[in-house]
Amino acid sequence: MTDPDFLALLGPNNSQGINERHFSRGQHLFFRGEAPRAMFYIVSGEARLLRASASGTEMIFQRVHKGFLAEASLDQSAYHCDGVANAETKAIAMPIEHFRAAMVGEAFRNFWLRHLGLELRKVRAQTERLTLRGASDRILHYLETEGTDGAIILSQSRKSWAAELGLTHEALYRTLNRLMTNGVIGVHGCRISLTSRSPQTSHVNYDGA
What we know:
By secondary structure, this protein is α+β, with helices and mostly antiparallel strands. It contains 5 helices and 11 strands, in the order E-E-E-E-E-E-E-E-H-H-H-E-H-H-E-E. Helix 2 runs antiparallel to helix 3 (135-146) and helix 4 (158-165) packs across helix 5 (169-181).
């Protein structure tokens, strides 16, 4: 496996017990109420934090394709959600006590603070995005805030992306087609990008969805 860069910051004493795990779709990484024993880094696939509402509806609190899952578990005595693979998923599991001990080191602590700051900015952007009424507004906001120079390489299925945007997949496909027809975005395989016309039109609702 190709190790994420942050593993080198853990130090030799805190790198013991790290292992790669594979999960099939629907398999639990951990269960709600369990004491955290590992910090999971998702390498590929998709993992989610799930909890059932009082009515039995499944609520998604986090969706990860590449990155840490359930960061808040670091200082908790028990998980507050189930961690479930939503596809064939590969993860790195790091013993939680070693992960906590690594915080003593300045390099790893600074890395973790930067990571949490980035996650906070992502959550704020997502919250703002979900308040937008139009499907096109949400798509363009995503490209502007999550992309590089207005372009993203989609690392998940479009159906999963639609759910992240708070849209049905039908609304996503319809809106993408309309934005392409209007020359606002370009779509080339998994790459979706704003065109030169987009800055003047990025907050216009093209379809009223």
